Amino acid sequence: MTSNNSKRSRGLGRLLVLAALTVLGVGAAVVVARDLYGDATTKANAAAKTVEMTKTNPGMGGMPMPMPVPMQTLGTATWQGMKIAARASTPVPFVVFTGTSMRTVKPSMDASMHLMVMLTDVHTAVAIPYASVWATIKQNGKVVYDARQWPMISRTMGPHYGNDVTLPGKGNYQLSLLISPPQSARHMEYANVWLKPHRVAMTFNWKGKG
First-to-last CA distance in the chain? Predict the structure, then answer.
């Protein structure tokens, strides 16, 4: 009976280590292993196994963790309690999933930035979904970029609206963002805001990639 109980305890211990690894990462899993196993040798072995598992299952749920990328804030504005922030990162590839098919979009060799537009509630800092964003960039009155921004999700950058952008070079630019109202059911606190398209204008200086 004692032997069976010991086996059950070890099996439970392994399950808890795996759960901690999946949800909280290596550090938490090692702490769980330390608390479950008694002697120093077992502790070391459990920790080593935990680290080894992260090599084959990086990230949460075995998914790879993206590396953070440097960002530049291009401008911010506020509209009826919605914070609109435009940021630029290095150009990045992304995938577009339509529900039935998926395609990869790769930045061109001369792409300047990945333009990100974050829409958030100023009261809660929670991202606002279900809107649409159209970006227009001009330099000296000439349109150099004019396109819809994809609704995007990212583990490092959070939910945003984005696309890769190619600029003709360094200098000052005028960014115009047309924000269309979120099309969704709303709780009553959002019943009377963001009901018509709204345009915001920003000016930024582009110094090039890097």
Answer: 65
pTM for the model: 0.68
Residue 154: CB atoms within 10 A of its CB come to: 16
Q: Measured between alpha carbons, how far is 127 from 83 in angstroms, rounded to an integer?
A: 9
Tell me the torsion sign for CA atoms 109, 178, 194, 202: positive
How far is 152 from 118, CA to CA, in rounded Å? 10
DSSP, res 63: P
**Cα-flanking dihedrals φ and ψ of residue 104, to 5°?**
-95, 135
Ramachandran angles phi, psi of 3, nearest 5° = -60, -45
Task: Give which of 153, 147, 112, 114 is closest to 133, Cα–Cα.
Answer: 147
The token duo for 50 is 């935990």
Residue 121: which pLDDT band, with cuts at 50, 70 and 90? very high
Question: How many whole angstroms separate alpha carbon 29 and alpha carbon 47?
Answer: 8
Query: Which bin fits 144, alpha (ψ -120 to 50), beta or left (φ > 0)?
Result: alpha
The residue ranking higher by pLDDT, 10 or 105, is: 105
Rounded Cα distance, 93 and 86, in Å: 19
- Cα distance between residue 101 and residue 108, in whole Å: 22
Q: What is the pLDDT of residues 153-199, one digit of tens each?
A: 999 888 999 999 999 999 999 999 999 999 999 999 999 999 999 99
- Contact indicator for 184, 127 with CB cutoff of 8 Å: no
